[in-house]
């Protein structure tokens, strides 16, 4: 089997459709998120696409905030790594959020990334966001209230995970995968320097 055949190619069309389907489920279960938190860099484009389907006519756009995380120690297969240690490279400015958005306390929050590989990154993002919001609430003399944390990934790899998601921290939030896939290297369109060839591979694999 060649290297090309071992990869899973995902087209922009495929990502778009996964986001549309996930948005429908989100709106009928937890309702429209107040804010989207994109895990960079794979979460940026899916966040922008899913916002299109979550926004109702006449409503304001859902704000998108970005966080950056890096994983260290071993490289894995796919566009995620297997590293055990997660390092913040970019995080939310809670002071600025409070000035312009009344903080994240009590909000319906959607975390977005492109792939759930070992789950290390998602576990860190969920845990740290919850803890930061809780600490901010305590400083203001408030409680977490209805703060809800949900997760959407374009693809979930069917493999043993190194970490699990604490449902208590999600507080009624949901986990959605656009599609569960085999544990192979996933090639996303925003990583390609030849989008025409990339799309041909995706169509041949039925991922369009």
Automatic annotation (TrEMBL):
SUPFAM superfamilies: PRTase-like (SSF53271)
Pfam families in the record: Pribosyltran (PF00156)
InterPro entries attached to this UniProt entry: PRTase-like, PRTase_dom
Keywords recorded for this protein, A-Z: Glycosyltransferase, Transferase
GO biological process annotation, one example: XMP salvage
Record bears the keyword Transferase: yes
Ranges where the Phosphoribosyltransferase domain occurs: 17-129
CDD domains named in the record: PRTases_typeI
One Gene Ontology CC term in the entry: cytoplasm
Protein name as catalogued: Xanthine phosphoribosyltransferase 1
Organism: Pichia californica
Lineage, opening ranks: Eukaryota, Fungi, Dikarya, Ascomycota, Saccharomycotina
Gene encoding the protein: XPT1
